[in-house]
Amino acid sequence: MIALIAGALDEFLRPYEFEFFRNGLVVATIAGALCGLIGCYVVLRSMSYIGHGLSHSIFGGFAAASLIGVNVFLGAGAWGLVTALMIGGITRRRPVGSDAAIGVVTTASFALGLALIQVFGSPGQNADAALFGNVLGVSRSDVYLIVAVTFVTVATIVVAYRRLLFVTFDPEVAEVTGVRVAVTDAVLMVLLAASILVTMNVMGVTLIAAALVVPAVIARLLTSSFLRMLLIATAVGAVTGLVGMNLSYHLDIASGPTIVLTGAALFVIAFVASGARGRSRLPGVRQAL
Fold first, then answer.
1. Which of 7, 62, 119, 192 has its CA 20 to 30 A from that of 221?
2. What total number of domains does the chain contain?
3. Which of 194, 181, 200 has its CA nearest to residue 151?
4. Global pTM?
5. 287 has pLDDT over 50
6. Residue 152 has what pLDDT?
7. For residue range 79-125, what is the model confidence (pLDDT) as tens digits?
C-alpha cells in the first residue's frame, strides 16, 4: 500500500522536474487569480462579453505589430489600451450600451488583424500561441511580467477600492458626489487590458473570457459581500489555474481548455452546493455592501 501511494505521488510530482512546467504552473496560477479579481468588476457591470472582445481586439494589435516589425508586446498592449478606452468612452454616451460598443470596436479590430494576416501572411508560431495559448512556452520574463501586472492591479484596487466600488454599482450618483467616473472607468479598462495581454500565453484569445467570468460567477453564487466576492474569485481563479495545469499534464490535454473545464466543474459544484438560498442572494450583492 505504501509503495502504491509512493508511486502515485512520484507520478504526480514528475512534471515538477521540468522548469518549463514550473514556469507554466506559476503563470497559470497567478493568471487565474488575476482574472478572477478583475473579473468581479466585469461581471457586476454586466460586461462579461468584454473579456472575449478585448482579447480579440488585442490579437488585432498583435498581428499588426508583428507585421510592421514593432515589439509585439508593446504594440498589442497599446492597441488593447486604445480599444479599451474607446469602449469606455462609447459606453458613457447613451443610448449605445456596453455590449454594442464592445461588439463594434473589438470585432472590427479583430477583423483588421485577420485581414492583415491574409494580405501579408502569418507572423509565425506566435500567432498560434496568441490564439490558443502556449503556457508551457513561457519564460522567466513572462513570470516576472505577470507578477508585476498582478501587483499593480492589486495595489490599484486597494487604493481606489471605494471609488471603483461606487462607480461599479451607481455611476450616476458617483458622478454627482464628485467621483471622477471617466477617470475611474479608464483606470479599470487599463487594468483589464493589461490583464488580458499578460494572460494570452496561458489561455489564448479564445478562452480568456471564461477565465475572467467563471471565478467571479462562482464567487457571486457563494457570497453577498463584495469584498468576500473579490477574495473568493481570486482564490477560485488561482485554484483553477493550479489544478488545471496539473490535469493538463496527466491527461495530455491542452492547458487552456483544461483550465476552463476545471473552472466549469467548480461552477457546477458551487451552483449545486449554494442551492436556492445561494441563488436568491444574487440580486442582493449591491445592497449588501
1. 192
2. 1
3. 194
4. 0.80
5. no
6. 93
7. 777 777 777 666 666 555 666 666 677 777 777 777 776 766 655 54
CA–CA distance, 198 with 147 (Å, rounded to integer)? 10
pLDDT digits (tens, 9 = 90+) for 154-178: 999 999 888 888 888 877 777 777 7
The domain of 178 spans 19-208
Q: Is residue 137 part of a domain?
A: yes
Rounded to 10°, the helix 255-280/226-251 angle is 150
Question: C-alpha grid cell for residue 40?
Answer: 468581479
Q: Which residue has the higher pLDDT, 16 or 102?
A: 16
Residue 195 lies in a domain: yes
Please count the other Cβ atoms lying within 10 Å of the Cβ belonging to residue 54: 31
Is residue 179, in this structure, part of any structural domain at all?
Answer: yes
Report CA-CA distances (Å) from 62 to 6, 65, 123, 162, 226.
Answer: 46, 5, 9, 34, 35
Give the mean model confidence (pLDDT) for residues 266-286. Answer: 68
Q: What is the number of residues in the chain? A: 289
Residue with cell 473579456: 51
Place of cell 473579490: 230
Q: What is the pLDDT of residue 211?
A: 86
Does the structure show a pLDDT above 60 at 280? Answer: no
Task: Show contacts of 251-259: CB within 8 Å, 24+ apart.
Answer: 254/132, 254/133, 255/24, 255/28, 255/133, 255/135, 255/136, 255/202, 256/132, 256/133, 256/135, 256/202, 256/203, 256/204, 256/206, 256/207, 257/207, 259/28, 259/32, 259/202, 259/203, 259/207, 259/211
Which CATH number characterizes residue 201's domain?
1.10.3470.10
